[in-house]
Amino acid sequence: MGKRKCENYSGIGGQAVLEGVMMKNQDCYAVAVRKPDNEIEVKIEKHKGFLGGKSIAGMPFVRGVVNFVDSLVLGMQILTYSASFYEDEEAEETKADKVLDKATKGKGESVLMGLTVAFSIVMAVAIFILLPYFLSSLFSAYIRSASLLAVLEGVVRILIFVGYVAAISAMKDIRRVYMYHGAEHKCINCLEKGRPLTVKNVKRSSRQHKRCGTSFLLFVMFVSVVLFMLIRVDNGALRVILRILLLPVVAGISYEIIRLAGRSSNLFVRIISAPGMWLQKLTTKEPDEDMIEVAIASVESVFDWKTWLKTTFGYDEDENWLGDEERAEIESRECYRQMREQFARSGEDKLQGCPAGEKNAEPKDGKEAEAAGEGAQA
Question: What average pLDDT is seen over the chain?
Answer without folding.
Answer: 83
